[in-house]
Every structure is written in structure tokens, then in C-alpha cells.
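ugh ok so i messed up the first submission bc i forgot one of the chains. this is the corrected input, ALL of the components this time, i swear. 734 residues overall. if the numbers dont match what u have on ur side tell me asap before i send this to the collaborators (the ones from the other lab, u know who)
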Amino acid sequence: MLSGSVGWVTEPAITYLDHAASTPMRAEAIEAMMPYLAESYANPSGSHRFARRARQAIDESRDTVAAVVGCRPNEVVFTGCGTESDNMAVGGAVSRLGGTAVCPAVEHHAVLHVVERLGGVVVGVDNAGSVDLDQLVATLDAEPDVAIVSVMAVNNEVGTITDIAEVSRVVRRHAPGALLHTDAVQAACWLDLHTVTPHVDLLSLSAHKFGGPKGVGVLIERGGPRVDPLIIGGGQERERRSGTQNTAGIVATATALQLTDAERDTEAVRLAGLRDRLVAELQHRLDGVIETVAPDRKVAGSGHVCITGVESEALLYLLDEADVCASAASACASGAMEPSHVLAAMGVERATALGALRLTLGHTTTEADIDRAIEVLVPAVERLRR
Amino acid sequence: MKIMCAMSGGVDSSVAALLLQRAGHDVVGVTMKLWGGDSDTGCCSISDVDDARRVAQQLGIDHLVFNFGDDFDEHVVTPYIEAHRRGVTPNPCIECNRSVKFARLAERADLLGFDAVATGHHANIGRTAAGRYTLERGADPAKDQSYVVHMLDQAQLARTMFPVGGLQKSDVRALAASIDLRTADKPDSQDVCFITSTGGRTAFLGDRIPFRPGVVVDTSGERVGEVDSVELVTIGQRKGLGLPGGGPKRYVVDVDNAAATVTVGADADLLRADLVVDAVSWVDEPVVGPVRVQCSAHGEPRLATITSGGDGAVTVTWSEPQRRIAPGQSVVFYDGTDTCVLGGGICR
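and heres the new structure output, hopefully the right one now
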């Protein structure tokens, strides 16, 4: 069986600062899922005791998730990933209600591409990447029939927190018939979801962003079915999401979310300190390191900078060569870096955006990681500028 | 040495990486993402990137994807469109080699600490007794690509490698097959990577520039036909000119893009005694005197003499009159033995 140290401690030489892309699974979550991969393998929809054991594990996981998120258990739908949850929320709302989808330009592509495909309206953001509320009001007033407004709680590239309560007030007033969805995939580690959930109708999570496994997402549908399901078939998840449930993944998801919730406040303080030291040290040792969003507007784990005179692709290669894992913008299907749509929407000049570097911290990040990152980054930038 | 091997996902660059690795070099494979639009051949489709990555995985070398889309737009696609608008027929693959592969990629390789960039081109780099670099034809005459890399100078050649240049294509495929590389039987790419086989050049340009109808006249000025788009007419063209059938073969002998007038004439009307070549670059020192001149990727090298130089432009006088070369085409000079590239430029 697994020992407690198994999990992420497989490559001790790696300095991993890409937690927003995926954070290592919690050892407890790995352990929690193992029985459902091995001995308790039954289909949870079955009618024998073996199946009931799996069913019970999912029911208990649903209770756990509901308690952390701040909703009723029957409002929790387990999906296949965060992208599926986003797709179901936006696509399912337009399918059910007709009308228009609205989102800000900095949304994850899992929302943005759905809104664009449905011919929806994309609104601007301020220079920190938070939705421009005046533009949102104008859009909601101009559009006669808005089905859904989708606004991310925390931006995945630059870490900006959007005040969902404020967005909710605007949406309820100017588009009373519209649903409000928030992509909270990047929020779970950093924000108390009880401060977000009451303001929205729909909320998406992704397990591998908080120490759960890849391949599990959550969609919270408050007040019962609000949107059409994306996947139909056997009627699992109370007909909200068909397909045999991923019992092991769901159990691990609940375990990871509970741990994340319990440690959130202390981790946020600890990691904000590390993040601030990282950015401050880079700015101290190098010219032209622009902190993209001020620390008081973003989550603790997000260190996003634009480094003038270097190109992200080249910098990432040198970091990779020194076993430091970071990222820039999102990668396209070929694996190439695409110019960031988030930075463009924020009004960051393209030349500046080409030097974007996203350093994101998480539960395994240590002081030594920060030391190592600084030690590698400073000479790498100097070399690329020579 | 530490070598960056440009891997397109084709068999030549796959084997190039293999040979470098076998020679004991530290090899990193790089696939360039150049074009974001529709594509069915060339280096940019996702399946080609997958092939490059899978070959790199099989060889156990790192594989990266660099996005040089902005550079490709600026230096290859936009000039291609603008040239057609002016009635000039450019070779975008050569411009990609000049401005992206052996410039942008090579600069990045240098910046990242690589000693050289390798590609799968069928060409060879040699050294003279004096230590000068030479650029030579690939060993397989049917696959020789020295024409498309003619712009390399001494400094670039010092940091460039063509590992498959000394092989026959059949040997390249056999090497790939011998270790079951997935690209062993992959067909050669033929066309411009940003132009699809379904739409072709007409659809690509039609989406980007307005086509103007043109008048077709004979050499006496008499109107004999019309064309839909003067931008798509090329010197030497015979078909698609709206001419009645029968009679002697007629060719496009001149295109006046500004006046939207195409002149057709007999084969003999195409013959020229000389041509002027602009934007000339040299592999080594500038050359004046007898040379062989090749005007397309697999064209016949013809005897000629470079009669004058200066200002980056030279005049080439054919030994026997030759058909006129379309403006924009690359003109490449080889030595008397037709082995070494001396330099080249663009037909005025």
C-alpha cells in the first residue's frame, strides 16, 4: 500500500511553480481513492451490497463538497473536469433558456469559446483583469434576453480576484432573468467558497487544482436543475450528468477539498509571504520586472510578472533546463505558447506580454523553492538580455 | 555539441535528429508553430507536431514547440500577399528559411546556448583548405534542396548542420524504418504550408486581396482575351487565359500589373538574353564570371555569366537565350561544376 510520502516526492530536484496548471495530489487523497480502484470497484448504480458501498462513498463525498462550497448536497454534480462544468453551465443555460451568454474577455477558454460559439457578448475588463462593471451594465441593459452571465472568481493567468457579490448585484438588477455562473476553478485553494456560492446560481470547480485527481470536476447547480445537461444517457447524478461515476476520483476530490479548506487560511498567509518575497527579490535584482497585478487584488499563490526584453518561450526553456517549472500564457493544441488573451484584454502591450511569466505557488511550495527560483531566474533573464 | 534540430514532423528531420544523436551530440528537437490558419501540409498542423514529438520521445530527446507565428506573418505571409498584389511571384519557403528558420530560430538557439541548428534539408556544408565554408548540393539529385537554403552566409553555415544531405532519400527512409520511426513512410511535403490543397493559391489570395480583371493582348497589342484576376497570372503561363483553342501555343510573355494587361506571345517571345537579380547574397565572396544559374527548386541549371555586380544587384547574361523568369522568383548561382552554391537573389 501507499506510504504517506508517496505522491509528489518523486522528483525532489524539481522546483515546481506551476500550481495553477495542476497542483500535486494530496497524499491523503491518493490513499482515499485507492480502495475504489482496487477492491471496491463496483458500479455505484448497481443493486448489490458491493455497489452500495461505492454509492455510499459518493454520497458522503457529495456531503463533504457541499459543506465546503456552502450548498446543499443535492446541488452538487460531479463531472469529468472543470472544462465540462463550464461548458455545461454556459451551453446548458442557453440550451434551456434561449437568449444570450455574456462573459468578460479574460475568462478561461472553457467559458470564452462557448460564449463565442453561441454568438454571445464578450465585455471588457479593467487593467487588473476584473470585469468592467459599467460595460457589464451597459451590455445587460442593451441585451433583451440574457440567459447567463459567466464571470470567473479568480483569473487563471494573473490571479485577479473578482468580487462576485458585486457582480451578482449588477446581474440581479439589470438582468433579473439571467443565471449567474462563476468559474471558481482557481478560487478553491484561496477563497472561502461560502463567500462566493450564495451570490451565484452555478459554480464550477476542478479537482486537480486543489490536490485531487485529474478527470473530476464539480458543477454546483443551486436551487435544483438550472441548465440542460451536456451528457445524457444512464441518468447518473440525478440526470444532470450521465456516465458511470468515477468513484475513486470523486472520493479523492472530496478528501482534497476538505483538506484544502481546513488549511486555507494558514496556507494563504504562508504562500503570500513566499510569493511577495519572490517578486520583490526579482524586482530588486533585475530591472524591468513588472508585477502584472497588485498583490492586494489577487490570490496568494499567484506571482505573475512581465519581464521586459525577454521572450517567455526562451525564458521557460532556460528555467526548464534548470529544473524550474513555470509557465507563460495558455498553450495551444500544438503545445506552442499563444499570446495571452488575458493580458491583451487588460491592455498590456503585446511587446510586454511576450515577456509574461506565471509563477504559481501551492501546498508543496517551500522557502527553498523560492530561493532556487530566484537563483535560476536572475541569471537566465540576464543571459537573454545580453 | 549541443544541437537544436528543427523537426517538422517529416522523415528527413526525424532522421537528422537520429543521426545527430548517434554521432554523440546533445540534441533537442524543436517544432516551429508558424501558421495559425488552415493548413494541410507542411510544418504547422497539429498532427505534424505530434509526429515530431513522438519521434523525439522515441529517440529520448527533449522536444519543444516555439511559436514564431508573428515572425512568419511579418516576413513570409504578408510579403507573399503584397508581392501578388504587385504582380510578383515569390517563393515563401525561401523567405521562411531566410527570415525564420536560419534567422529567428538560429538566434534563439544561440541565445539558449546551442552550438548549431540542424535541419532535414538535402544539402551539404563543406570546408575548404583555407577554412571557408561551402554550401553544396545534396547527394540525392532528385531531392537536392540547396536552392532553398542558398541565402546562408559564412557565419550562418558555421552554425548550421544538414545531417541527411549526404544520403539518398531511400537511405533516409530505410534508416527511419530500421528503428520503426513513425515518419518512415510519411509522404514528402510538396506545397506551401499555409495554402490548402482544397482552396489553393486562388482561395488564399482571394480572401486577402481584391482580384482585378485583366485584358489579354498579343504582342501587337490586339485584344485576344480576358482573365478574372491579373494578380494570379505568371510569366510563362499557358492555361487559363481565356484564349480560343487551336493555333500556335501562346504563353504569357509580360504582365503589366498596373495596367491590368497580360501580353501573350509565342515561345520565342519569352526568350531573353539576360536578367537582373536583386537582393543578392553570397555564400562567400561575391562572384563575377561564368556560373550555372538555377531559377526554380528543381529547375535545370543553365550556363551564364555574371557580368556586373554592385548595389546588391547583378546582371546575368545567358550563354544561350533562356525563357524569361517571373519577377520574384529566386535565382541561385552555382559554380562551374554545378556542385557549390555561390549565392543568389531575386529576379527583378
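quick check: Residues 247-285 of chain A form the longest helix (39 residues). that seems consistent at least. The first strand of chain A starts at residue 15 and ends at 16.
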